[in-house]
Design a protein that fits this description.
mainly alpha; elongated
Amino acid sequence: MRTLTTALDQEESHMTLENAVRAFAGIMVLVSVALTAWVSPHFVWLTLFIGANLLQSAFTGICPAVKILQKLGFQSRNA
């Protein structure tokens, strides 16, 4: 029983590719908003680019961040 619990805890501690993409997108939005507020209003273009990329990936399924995160070792929940 103890081994099963340890295995389940280890399974839940790994971040999936899907969650990593969401976390990366959220961090990028927060960073771009902070840069817009504190550095230059021109960083709003980065925020708009991130939003447009999220929107296009929802319709096409193509997300550049997925390729990068896969190379970093993140695995899909279905894998």
